[in-house]
């Protein structure tokens, strides 16, 4: 019955969206004006005090800045304990943005800690995708428990209608901005000073090895920009924040000195605001000596052609993808391109799990975050990533993740047999639509 209701709501939303919203796009002069780390708190104060933060307000450019203490952490067994330790030690605020936060071995570790911190007076604010977090059914009890403890939980509604306000106080909106686009950004902020960005949800399959992913943990000036993005997003979903002189000082603690690693925050925001996608293309097309990529869904034809072009011009290209046993339809569809990739000199390595990490290493630059290389992520969903223009960060990714992963992977080979090759060709063509 629930799926029937969801299907009817989706059909209504489809008509609603195209009647009210078709053709609108972001890209104003205000959006193109870069916001520096030093201006992030002032930007957040304006958002906190605004009558409304509307959809277009989140399309913003963020000026290059710096980060400190960058730590690459592959696998949930590495990053979940560090997150929980930092959250347990929080003094002022915990901000989480996630596609998937679900009950289970891992979710049941996070939930009581977040509830306890809220009872202690720490401001715990969470933004979740309602679809990815199964908010209508599987996590309803968990979300109700969090709200009862004082955690403010906002939901993004890919299935209409849009609703605003925290769980327990949500009200309907006539807007149709969220329809058909999931909230795919992943961010954890502790006390405005420690940040995590990566590709994993708070879910068991990232902890037990079924999904292979990575987070980076870091500090430094860039955390101020990420905090401002969270404030914008929280207000956009109907959350309230303190206003007045000094009201957000706890969320923006002073940061001494300059960070060691040059970094730029990149955020895609529908409709039409895609600096993260543009950066991914730029890194592939501008690579000169080496290019390493890991991604679960490489389906965009322009991206595949850009990778092939890199191989043809002599760049040493390594792709780390899921093997077909774990990657399912996406892996089979991508396998259709193996002939062209291998002919161009591209190395394809198949990892024995579902590769969910989204990393591009182009010479001395590293791009990490939430961007799958398919149409949903590259052109439709909200996405968040960091571009490090720093050889030491790129080398850290290679040494602790890419090189070890290649050692346990097998070299990719084209599909054998006319039936399998035809099936993969059909799947590859179909993948362009999604």
Task: Provide a descriptive summary of the structure in words.
The protein folds into two domains: 37-259, 2-Layer Sandwich (Endonuclease, Chain A), CATH 3.30.870; 275-431, Endonuclease, Chain A, CATH 3.30.870. Helices cover 37% and strands 23% of the residues. It is built from 14 helices and 21 strands. The chain has helices at 2-20, 29-32, 40-49, 76-88, 107-119, 140-148, 222-236, 275-286, 301-312, 324-335, 338-343, 375-380, 391-407, 418-431; strands at residues 34-35, 61-62, 65-74, 93-98, 123-129, 152-156, 163-164, 171-172, 187-190, 194-198, 211-212, 214-219, 261-268, 290-294, 316-322, 347-351, 354-355, 359-362, 365-369, 383-389, 410-411. The strands form four sheets. The chain has a 15-stranded mixed β-sheet, with helices on both faces. Strands 1-2 form a two-stranded parallel ribbon. Strand 18 and strand 19 (365-369) form a beta hairpin.
List strands and helices in order, with pairings.
Elements: H1 2-20, H2 29-32, E1 34-35, H3 40-49, E2 61-62, E3 65-74, H4 76-88, E4 93-98, H5 107-119, E5 123-129, H6 140-148, E6 152-156, E7 163-164, E8 171-172, E9 187-190, E10 194-198, E11 211-212, E12 214-219, H7 222-236, E13 261-268, H8 275-286, E14 290-294, H9 301-312, E15 316-322, H10 324-335, H11 338-343, E16 347-351, E17 354-355, E18 359-362, E19 365-369, H12 375-380, E20 383-389, H13 391-407, E21 410-411, H14 418-431
Parallel strand pairs: 1-2, 4-5, 5-6, 11-17, 14-15, 15-16
Antiparallel strand pairs: 3-12, 3-13, 4-9, 7-8, 9-10, 10-12, 13-20, 14-18, 16-21, 18-19, 19-20
Helix pairs in contact: 3-7, 5-6, 8-9, 10-14
């Amino acid at each position: 019955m629930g799926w029937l209701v969801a299907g009817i709501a989706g059909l209504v939303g489809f008509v609603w969206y195209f009647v009210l919203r078709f053709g609108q796009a972001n890209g104003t002069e205000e959006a193109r004006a870069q916001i520096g780390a030093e201006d992030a708190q002032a930007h957040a104060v304006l958002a906190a005090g605004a009558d409304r933060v509307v959809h277009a307000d989140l399309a913003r450019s963020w000026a290059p800045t710096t980060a400190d203490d960058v730590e690459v952490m592959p696998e949930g067994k590495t990053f979940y304990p560090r997150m929980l330790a930092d959250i347990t030690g929080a003094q002022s605020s915990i901000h989480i943005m996630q596609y998937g936060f679900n009950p289970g071995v891992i979710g049941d570790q996070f939930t009581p800690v977040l509830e306890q911190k809220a009872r202690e007076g720490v401001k715990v604010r969470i933004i979740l995708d309602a679809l990815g977090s199964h908010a209508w059914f599987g996590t309803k009890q968990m979300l109700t428990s969090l709200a009862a403890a004082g955690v403010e939980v906002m939901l993004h509604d890919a299935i209409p209608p849009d609703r605003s306000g925290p769980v327990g106080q949500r009200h309907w909106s006539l807007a149709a901005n969220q329809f058909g686009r999931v909230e795919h950004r992943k961010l954890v902020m502790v006390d405005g000073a420690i940040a995590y960005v990566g590709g994993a949800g708070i879910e068991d399959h990232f902890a037990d090895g079924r999904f292979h992913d990575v987070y980076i943990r870091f500090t430094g000036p860039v955390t101020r920009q990420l905090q401002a993005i969270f404030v914008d997003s929280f207000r956009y979903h109907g959350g309230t924040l303190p206003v007045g002189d000094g009201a957000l000082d706890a969320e923006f603690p002073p940061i001494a000195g300059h960070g060691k690693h040059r970094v730029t925050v990149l955020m895609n925001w529908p409709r039409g605001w895609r600096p993260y996608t543009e950066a991914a293309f730029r890194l592939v097309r501008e690579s000169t000596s080496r290019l390493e990529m890991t991604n679960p869904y490489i389906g965009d034809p322009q991206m595949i052609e850009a990778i092939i072009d890199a191989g043809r011009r002599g760049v040493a290209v390594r792709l780390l993808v899921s093997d077909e046993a774990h990657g399912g339809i996406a892996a089979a569809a991508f396998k259709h391109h193996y002939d062209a990739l291998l002919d161009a000199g591209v190395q394809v390595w198949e990892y024995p799990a579902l590769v969910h990490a989204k990393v591009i290493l182009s010479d001395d630059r590293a791009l990490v975050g939430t961007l799958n290389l398919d149409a949903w992520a590259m052109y439709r969903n909200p996405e968040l990533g960091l571009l490090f223009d720093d050889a030491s960060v790129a080398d850290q990714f290679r040494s602790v993740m890419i090189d070890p992963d290649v050692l346990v992977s097998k070299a990719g080979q084209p599909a054998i047999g006319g039936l399998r090759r035809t099936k993969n060709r059909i799947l590859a063509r179909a993948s362009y639509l999604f």
